[in-house]
Amino acid sequence: xxxxxxxxxxxxFAAMAVLCAVCTGAEEYSSGLWxxxxxxxxxxxISAYSGFDDELEIPSKLNGxxxxxxxxxxxxxxxxxxxxxxxxxxxYIGNEAFRESSITSVDIPSSVVGFGTxxxxxxxxxxxxxVNFNAKTSIPVSAFExxxxxxxxxxxxxxxxxxxxxxxxxxxxxxxxFGRNITGIGDYAFxxxxxxxxxIPxxxxxIGRAAFMRSKxxxxxIPSSVVxxxxxxxxxxxxxxxxxxxxVNFNASAAVPxxxxxxxxxxxxxxxxxxxxxxxxxxxxxxxxxxxxxLGNAVKYIGERAFRYxxxxxxxxxxxxLRTIGIEAFQYSGIRELAxxxxxxxxxxxxxxxxxxxxxxxxxxxTTWVDMGIFKHTDAxxxxxxxxxxxxxxxxxxxxxxxxxxxxxxNVTIYCTKNSQAHKYAEKYxxxxxxxxxxxxTTSIKFNNQQYTLAVGDTLRLYPVITPQNTTDRIEWIxxxxxxxxxxxxxxxxxISEGEVAIQIxxxxxxxxxxxxxxxxxxxxxxxxxxxxxxxxxxxxxxFGALYTGKACTPKVIVTYNPFTVLTQNVDYTVTxxxxxxxxxxxxxxxxxxxxxxxxx
Length: 601
Hints:
Elements: H1 2-23, E1 28-31, E2 34-38, E3 44-49, E4 55-57, E5 61-62, E6 65-70, E7 83-85, E8 92-93, E9 105-108, E10 114-115, E11 130-133, E12 152-155, E13 161-162, E14 175-177, E15 184-185, E16 206-207, E17 219-222, E18 228-229, E19 247-250, E20 269-272, E21 278-279, E22 292-294, E23 301-302, E24 315-317, E25 324-325, E26 337-339, E27 346-347, E28 359-362, E29 368-369, E30 389-392, E31 413-415, H2 421-429, E32 432-434, E33 444-446, E34 451-455, E35 459-461, E36 465-467, E37 475-479, E38 485-487, E39 492-495, E40 499-507, E41 512-520, E42 533-534, E43 539-541, E44 558-562, E45 565-566, E46 573-578, E47 587-592, E48 596-597, E49 599-600
Parallel strand pairs: 3-6, 4-7, 6-8, 8-10, 9-11, 11-12, 12-14, 13-15, 15-16, 16-18, 17-19, 19-20, 20-22, 21-23, 22-24, 23-25, 25-27, 26-28, 27-29, 28-30, 30-31, 31-32, 34-41, 42-48
Antiparallel strand pairs: 1-2, 2-3, 5-6, 33-36, 35-39, 37-40, 38-39, 40-41, 43-44, 44-45, 46-47, 47-49
């Protein structure tokens, strides 16, 4: 082992010695107006040119030796050349090779497979307008940075990545065509670039820190191929401060990274696809003109301050698997009516503080209110001066000291069932309350199976049969031994260590059921059968009268599964209309989708 390490050290020393010999300046040779350096493989690199040609062709040979590369700084500051043609033997272009030159267009051939590691190849080329980049490698670091009038870039299929700051501060850049094999876009790659439209191909897996920050993009589509974002500690800022950006379609197979779109104040709509798992801290903070948000079904959490200062917000469509809304997530938002989704379990302190809310529906799935720790305040709906109606089903209420859930929201009335936690909370803290909503009590609960298997470290989602499915009861999950398996408020069980554990589900009206889970290493986990809810139990409301116009009438419907659960169109159900043109009676059909099944007309 020691001998191997000694030999490795000797080889490393020899390699470093060769590199140092190159770095200290290899001997230059001349051939007419050209200077060159010899390489160990018998080829040469151009190191200087003393002519005045504005259209320059790199020779194939000098003194009988093949020209295979361009040395560092070979054309640095050359203000004579406007165009350059590379021979088909060129494989390498060095650091700052054309920096501050007067080149106007460049075509990097596919023969090029390497660049100097420091990059800056064409940095500060103030006359450069057009680039065709076909090299079979990455675009180097800061390759075209500060090319003020660069307008058109075409990237070939052989190019694999766009390096850090490659097109930074190219504020005239209008067109970028990606090749079919780009996998990464580096940090600051298009920072402050003038590009207004860009099509990120579905080969891209990585988008770096501040990659498009302060660029002029007007819309962006992030494909599901993207799995990683760069960050500086905790900030991504990939698209932050993009003041022209109006529309975002985000479907990366990852969470929206922290600060990704912060201060892109003209975004109007955000659509999060079904591949995206969450929204991280401050992702859309200070997007003042954001009006509509649609979340995909894989989104499990909304992070701290994710939509803070979204003053124009009007509509939120939640996905079916949202579990957590973080601290200050919608603080100072403009949302007025809010039906929180069934399945939501956790709401952070100040989550909707200072918002424009008028009506809120809180589902029975909410079990946790994150407080400020030492002060025990939640203030989740604090200082909402317009908030008047709050519907609370079987949700657990916070264990705060001062009844701070609605602190300084003076006009709140809680609508709930009699003797519910919400009713008791209102009475305890002197909040106006109307406990007149008729409860829908659970009549039975049972599991699909009495015995399940679960691998250590794996998860199993349980889907018990609850009757009636539209119960207003609060549902509680309990693990008999959390050292063996833990269960969350959605019935998702995680195997911790080998053993058997009882998992119990219990409704607030007293019905319960128990199953046994065997947790072992290296086994196949059970998969429970999904129990979809029948939408025929829902109540359909809306203003259904319509004036004959000769055109199809499509009045908006409101579908409530129980008084505390409002369903979402195109997430929980679809709507179709028939006989809705002529005078008479039309038919509206609501068909369950997602977690719902059946129809109601």
